[in-house]
Structure formats: structure tokens, C-alpha cells
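pasting input
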Amino acid sequence: MTVPEVDDEFDERVAAGLAFLRRRLSGQYQIDEFGFDPELTEQVFQPVLRQLYRRWFRTEVIDVKNLPAEGGALVVGNHSGTVALDALMLSVACHDEHPAHRYLRLLGADFVFRMPFVSELARKSGATLACNPDVERLLNAEELVGVFPEGFKGVGKRFADRYKLQRFGRGGFVSAALRTGKPIVPVAIVGAEEIYPLLGNIKPLARLIGTPYFPVTPTFPWLGPLGLVPLPSKWLIRFGEPIHTTPYADGADDPAVVFNLADQVRETIQTMLHETLELRPDPFAA
Amino acid sequence: MIAVANGSAADRARAPRVVIVTGVSRFLGATIAARIAADPRVHKVVGVDRADPPAELAPLLRDVAVRRVDLTDGASSLVKLGAEALVHLAVMSSPDPEGGGRAAMKDQNVIGTLQLLAACQQMPSLRRLVVRSSTAAYGVSFRDPAVFTEDTEPRDVPRGGYGRDILDIESYVRGFRRRRPGVTTTVLRFAPFIGPQADTALLKFLARPAVPTVLGRDPRLQFIHVDDALEILRRSVLEDHQGTFNVAGPGTLTLSQAVRRSGRIALPVLEPAMHAAASFGRGVAGLSLDQVDLFVHGRVVDTARLVREYGFTPRSTADAFDDFVHAQKPGAVITPALVAAAEQRMLDMIRSVREKQGRAGR
């Protein structure tokens, strides 16, 4: 005998799946002006990333209440891990752990948008180029924007320098927050440093294939494609208290104000990193 | 005696009495010339083109005084007409294989505009200049912001000929603005036109059953419905709108989405192959480098300034595209009805299997 309820549930899922396929095949879905495709993100990208987030990295979130439930905000995090998985995991955290299920609109280097396929995946998942016009446009549209001011200096640093914040560029992200009057939410991400411990960088090879660096890790390139599997470190993502930018609104074009505020954000994240690290004595704990 | 420009604000806002329209032997020019001629405040419309208008446009041009002028030879014959407004639409977006190809296109776009603006400078009566430009004016670069506002400066020069012509045309117009600040100069940066007819190179391309695309790229596209473009042009001539404006349907469709909505099949091609096909001779399969640029980078513009200034919102890119899809149905391969039918068939199949199981179980 078959159990009717199980059948019904199965049928509903099949029907929903077919309806999803029909919408996709006939182009009946909406994207925003940046190319963000919420349906594809929700139905395809997030479920894949969620497995990595929950099962592989066993991610825990601290103080997600510091993330505003509505309105624009600039989420600033530390960058690490050779491949920018930390950005993707942070977007899962903002969507899954926050009651408002917010989408994090990530900012990527132009390198990302130069690459075929990668550029389109980035746009469809809501990312855009890290440039002030785009950041201000997203913030004014009350979106949550994710930025990693260390850039390649952060992802491409050696394992020996783990959890040491690198220089924060010119602080362009701060002037965008000042100009739009949106708060800055500092975030410390612990765990991404251990996924691909970077031992060395083969610069000539990087230049040859046009990447910012060519990583050498304990498993890559020695194990070939198997070396691409990230090590299953334990992740903690901690959201700091929002830094309100309205008091500095007049200083958006003053390099000194911008630089000082960027430095304050950097110090905050560094302190949060040290504190959060102490909560996780073993990088590969359960 | 001709009325002197730079009058009072009320005088500036007044509809022009004599209007020159260039490019009247094509649909856009002929239609806008006819609409302006239909306005009772306008006394005379002079239509200019280097070729005689085709027979099907003749009914539109009944009230328009058509003159055959090749702008590349100079436009001094237009100086004495006492024109108060000039609409420059003789800008080609793709080469005409029968009309001299790319070389003639560049001549008409660049030299034609240069000569026309030189003539405009000698017209004391001129109060208003409207120039057709394109969103191609933003160039193409991977470091471009996602959405262009009118103030965005192009980072890199485009590969496509039309894009380069547009940059030249706009630089000439900037020069004209400096020399004749009293003339209201309206530059309209149009997104690619769309409507029921597939009458541009891009639309002909999108109307094919299989649409070649660039492998690994899914550009964001924007269109402006021809009817909305005409309305903006009409207002630009009859009202006073100083400045540069993006003219596009709000929102965007990706190329893959557009191909699916029109029931076509995407045919992904490696970028170098597409580049080669576009550069070869006159371009294989109607391809041009302008399209390769568009198909790699996509192009989305902000229309807030247009909506604010004109108080008019063009229909969205998706709606404008729907109009095209409806008219181009015969070429569709995978229609929405076909997809819906396939979905229904699968659901029915599952249901029938389930019913059989149910009966067997009992």
C-alpha cells in the first residue's frame, strides 16, 4: 500500500519543480538592473551553498541581530581563504540566519567580471563590480551590500599571516556609506583561513593565466582537482554593532575623515577576530 | 526679419515655427516629421535626406517639404530656411550593404554631423537642436558600473563602429554647445529600438530561429519602444529640454531571457569566433562588432533624469520586448504554449501512473 500523504507531498514537489522549469524555459522571471536573479539564487545557488555552510563548515553565527532588518547597510568583513568562499558563506548567513532573510549584494573585483561564466554567476547571484556608483545605487535602494576592503591582499595572503587584517585600500567603501548615510556593519569571519592554507604563490604562472596569484596549498596543485576540496574547518561568523555614519556625513569628500573611519572599522574587525578566535581553540573542531 | 534667439523664458518654451528633420527617408525620421507637421503651432517642416524616401513612407510625408541633401557635402543650403528647431536623425546604427557599407556609414554619421553642426552655427534663428545619440556612448569596459547615468564617462573606446561614431558625434555636439550656449541642445541617448517590426540589425538578429550568443556571457539588455522614442522626440522639438538624456525602457532582460521569451534557441559561440565572424567582410550573418560588444558587456542605463524632465515614463524593456515577440511569433521554435503543454503532459503522466498504482494496491 502507498501512503497518500507521502504521495501528495511528492506530487507537489514535482509540480513545483516543473513550474520552476517552465518559468525558466520561457524566460518568465524577473531580474533587477544589476542582473540579480532572486529565483535562481533562492532555488539553485543557495541550496548548494547551504550544504557547504551547514554540513562542511558547520558554521555558527554570533549576534546576527546587529544586522539591520530593513534598509541599506554596508557589511564589511575580513577576507581570506585563497578562494573567496567567505563572501558566499556570509551571504548564506545573512539570508538563512537573519529573520528578515536578507540578500547580501556582494562586490567583486573587475577580475571576476572579466571571466566568462564566473561573471554571469556573480551577477545572477546579486554581485556587482566594486565601484562607488554601484555601491551607492545599491545602498540607496535599501540593499545590504557586502564588501571586503582587503581585496586580493586578504584572500591571497600566506597561511602564516592568518587573521591579520591587511591594508584597507583607500576607503572608497566608507565614502559610499557616508554619502548615502547608511550604517557600516563590521563582520569577523573565522574559519575561512584554514580551508586552503596558502603556503606559496607561483607568480610567473599567475601572470601566464592572468590571475592575481597562483596558490600552492598542502593539497594543491599536488592532488590535482582533489586539491580543490576545501579543508573542513569550523566557521564562526560574528556581526559587530553597526557604526552609524550620519555624524560624519559632511566628510564624504574629506580624505582624512574617510581614512580615519576606515581605520576604525578595521580596528573593530581585528579586535572582533581575536575575540572570536578564542571561542574556537581547535580550527577543525566539530 | 527672423526672430532672434535667446529671448525670454516664455519665448524659449514656445513651439518652433519652422523645423528641419534630417534622415526622413527612414521610418523614424519620416514619422517624427509627420507628427511635428501635424502640430498646429508648427508652420513648416523641412525633411532632409541624401536619398529619396521610399514609396511606403510617402503618405507620411505629405505635409513635409522633402529636400535631397547629402550632408557630407555640406549643409549650407539649410541655413536660409529660418529654422527654429533642427532634429538630427540621420545617424545610422548599422551599415547598409547596398549604400556603401561601413565607410559610407562613418561618413554620414561623423562628417554629416560635422557639416550639419557647422551649418547650425550660421543659423541665427535656431533655438533648439535635438540630436539622436545612443547608449553606446558609454563605451565598453569590464570596469564599468552596472548602471550608467548620464554623467558616467566612457572608460574604453568600443570596438564597434557605431559606438565610435557616437563618441565622435557627441564630442562635436559638446563643441557646438560651447559655441552656441543660447541654443537648447537636447542629446537623446537611445537604447536599441524595438517594436513590432524587426527592422534594425539587432532585431533581425534576435528574430532568427537560432540566436548566436557569446559562450559564458549573458548580457543585460535594454530596449526603447519605437512609439515611446517618437513621443520623446516630439516633446524634445515642441518643448524645451536642455541636456543629455538616457532614453530606455526601465528594467532589463538578459539575452538568454530575451531568447527564451521569444521562443528562440540560443547558440553559444566562443567570443573569438564571434569576433572573427563580425570582422569578416561585411560581417557573417549580419553580425557587427557593435553587437559583439553588446553581447559581451550588456548595457543598462538609468532613466531617472528623463522621467523627471519629461514627466513621461517609457514602457518597460520587458513590455516593449513583448510587443516584438507577439509580432515575431512565426519564427518561434519553443513557444510558451509548447512548454506549458509539456509540463501538463508530465503532470498527467504522473497522475495516471499514480492512479494505476492505487488501483493495483486496492
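fyi The beta strands of chain A are 60-62, 73-77, 104-108, 128-129, 144-147, 184-190, 200-201, 215-216, 236-239.
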